[in-house]
Batch of 3 targets.
Target 1
Amino acid sequence: MDKLVINGGKRLEGTVSVSGSKNATLPVAVAASILGDGASVINNVPDLRDVETLRSVLEVLGATTKFKDSTLHIAPRNEIVYEAPYDLVRKMRASIYVLGPLLARLGRAKVSFPGGCAIGPRPIDLHIKGLEQLGARIEIKGGYIYAQTDRLIGADMDLSGVHGPSVGATANVMMAATLAEGTTRIRNAAREPHVSDLAKFLNAMGAEIEGIGTSELKIHGVKQLLGTEYSIVPDDIEAGTFMVAGAITGGDVFVKNALQANLEAVSATLSEAGVQLDWKENGVRVTTPRHLNAIELSTEPFPGFPTDMQAQMTGLLSLVSGTSVVNEAIHTDRFMHVAELNRMGADIRVRGNRATVRGVPKLSGAPIMASDLRAGAVLVLAGMAAEGETVVSRVYHIDRGYERIEEKLTGIGADIARIDE
Ligand code: UD1
């Protein structure tokens, strides 16, 4: 298993490029494989473990895929399999994205019920509610979701849950509704950049989706979607992670391909802490004054501050003098990174879904363990800021969502080596 060995204390300087969005690539690849007739060519696809895992799911269900130089070629096969077994789904929760498309295409689906994960229980009641409103009959039995329909019919629905709109449910229902009869209206739809990117891809395939980027989507069902060529939006979370990398090392970094429109809340939060941001058309320059300010922040659905940036921001705040408060309102148990940061000398206490972060003057390198994707990312950030050597194990969590993280960061002055043990 790989480890990252980080020699901390290096100031980052230079340009780092953002790859395509992981969370957009996953549903786009599902839509291309199951909903489309004819081949699709998807550009700007990141080379990630999650994309590999999804390809293996899609190969089993009904597509031939080829991935080279950031381009994913998808050729759907004539015969699509309606069952996504446990062995595939357990490797990646996002496999649940096949449920809506299989139902729309075949009139039936059998998909393993996804489990929880390191960041909490992660229910799928909203996915099921939305698909039932389109006319699916759904039963949960023996760890599987069985869904069936004679014909999906457009419906009016509200997809808001206790923690706000759901990205996954919005995407799943939207994909199913593209081939339903009549019009579907989703109120309280998620507006995350990757949901909008999926909607744009579906429209490029011939779908008729209105209201993209708003909380009310209108989907007019069509008879057929066709393969197309598309380029994935840059990854806002990878971009945000590099912005924090610049800030936490006191660096001067240009984050190329970062899109301002998708990073307003992250920018506002970093600016409030005192980080200097200079937005250009093709990215953002991040410079950091000597003193930053403690702040209070709460995660929210887009356009609010993303939960997927909470760990990284908590890491930065651990080194800012004064007391910061971080509320996690989406995945309320998502504080696995705190114990590891505290092992490096941070002073963070968690009560319920709130972390109180008392800034310390320095972190010191230590052996630490990634427990999930973003909790892993913050450990790399903390390791770069810490004095001495940090060894991050369970790097496979980080590889799920960051393309060649050590190469990209080494390119702007970090001292990180990957070792295979
Ligand atoms: C997606 C992202 C993940 C991100 C999350 C929130 C992908 C592959 N993953 O996950 O990185 O952290 O959005 O931005 O895109 N909920 C319910 N019932 C449901 C579905 C969700 O109660 O049926 C709750 C969840 O527990 C959570 C909140 O709604 O509290 C948001 O979850 P959701 O937006 O669905 O997250 P995912 O799509 O799983």
Target 2
Amino acid sequence: MKIVAMGRALPQYVLDNQELSGMVETNDEWITTRTGICQRHIAKGETVVALASQAARQALAQSGVPLESIGVVIVCTFTPDTATPSMACMVQKELGLPQTVLAFDLNAACSGFVYGLAVAEALMDRQGCHALVIGGELLSRLVDYTDRSTCILFGDGAGAAVVSPAGSRTVTDFGADGNAELLSGGGYNINGGREPLRMNGREVFRFAVSTVPGSIRRVVEQAGCTLEEVDHFVLHQANHRITEGVARHLGVNLDRFYENIVHTGNTSAASIPLALWEMQEKDLLHPGDRLVLAGFGGGLTWGAMLLNW
Ligand code: COA
């Protein structure tokens, strides 16, 4: 499987730490040192479908892949505009993709994009086609802006990848461990209202730093290479200190981990494709580069993937 091109879309409105400090009892210094986040984009009217379609259009235009070659559309999200139609079906309509596409949403929270790439790889084999894998989230829908332990972390956005069945097989490692105590939200309460995001930050932190390094080691070992031979590590952007912790556990220099959390915050399934888009824009990705992607979060879920650019 090969990622042919990336696209991205961010809401116009930027909520910075200064403005958040006027909404809850917090301050820029606390947020920056504990999370690495300075600002996040927040939707004011934009929808998941609109952002996902915009990102997908950009990726398709860059890829040169004709619409008729797209046979699979996966939108990775746990904050869809509607449960049905799925976001993937709406992207099919917005972009005028063939009605022969297999289109569906995938909810693996912050591991979504890595799960989505793996599912797309398997489906492309069956269908003999290209795929569109999109991470699109409006976390601001679920955030309680009176809860300072969560509202500082999350942002909105979408990143899209056009994926081709060409190239070498990816190597993956996945896991899931049902647990609503650490991170939950988005269900309906007894009055029919949406439940906001609730999180035990410390425990989520511990889960991430103790699970992700093992998952990365397993994909590297399975691929028959070493950590030194990996060109870029692209982790879900949850917290700069989580990335630091994972790098430390692996004994890998932090400068090989791409980070953009400073200006996007945690955008769940959108965070890895947003980072890949930026890396491509900065010309950091070259044919044959070995990448390790690692998602982790709600579910609990986690997943690592080694692929060649
Ligand atoms: N501003 C100022 N103070 C805050 C604050 C804020 N936004 N949020 C919490 N605090 C306070 C707490 O009330 C606590 O005060 P106390 O010591 O008087 O009780 C103190 O800061 C420490 O809180 P704690 O929760 O232990 O901080 P932390 O160092 O664990 O950082 C997180 C909190 C949320 C930043 C951190 O746990 C984290 O990032 N966890 C992972 C979350 C994540 O990535 N979730 C998504 C997974 S995909």
Target 3
Amino acid sequence: MNISPDTKVYGIIGYPLTHSLSPIMHNMAFKEKRINGVYLYFPCKYVEGVVAGMKSLSIRGLSVTIPHKEKICHYVDELDSLAKEIGAANTLINKEGFVIGYNTDAYGAISALKKKVNTIKGKNVLIIGAGGAARAIAFALKKEGAKLTISNRTIEKGLKLADNVDSKFCPLSHISENGYDIIVQTTSVGMYPDTDKSPVSKNIFKKGMIVMDIIYNPVETNFLKTAKKCGCITISGIEMFIYQGAKQFELWTGKDAPIDLMKKTVLNIIGR
Ligand code: NAP
């Protein structure tokens, strides 16, 4: 790509930013769609000056990752209604000096689930974890009409999320198979390099259940491998990652995202 004065600048903020796959995924998408854009790493410890910096440097869009998704909401000019409800934004758009925050994690998770589930309405869904990603997914699933149970290691955090989305709560140490149709694993347990770990035992799985892990490295976690052995239908975190990125691409460029290419690019890097 030739850098010119017209090249549109995008990027990702977070700290640390060592393992993000977003730059390679978005740069490949720009190339494929012939967009004069570049997506860069912006390791950033303090979030206070980010929105002002975006405006003064004409940065068109940013992905926001750990630990800034919540704090950034205090600095944008406007928050999309879902991001406001969740209390976290993972995407910023600079529309001629007016910066809007969105949450595409929620969209990513629902799109990934809908590849394997016809309707989410009325389904019993267990969400393992109560961190930032769990929060986005819980609000999105509630909107889809799911009956939710939240389970978390730290009880106060789990109870708070369960209260916010008007759902049941079960401590992580007490969960067992309980008529769930869908399980969504959102903790970081089992993520590279601790790939032999799982947050739960195989007793929670039942044949035919839909089981999604939002961890995308490795592509198939220990949790998903066990679910598959128990006869569950599994969904990798790669699916959510691609869909949340595709939605960002569409918000920034107004064009359809090259989803297959984005997925192929990410899978090549992770080594599958
Ligand atoms: P977070 O806000 O830090 O939340 C972490 C969650 O993991 C909390 O519920 C925490 O429980 C739980 N946890 C951590 N260590 C644990 C342990 N040893 N045992 C039991 N529970 C443990 O992080 P996040 O932003 O939600 O991200 C969570 C994971 O999702 C990460 O692996 C991230 O890469 C992945 N993610 C994937 C996508 C995607 O597109 N596929 C998008 C966003 C995030 P406590 O409350 O007890 O600490």
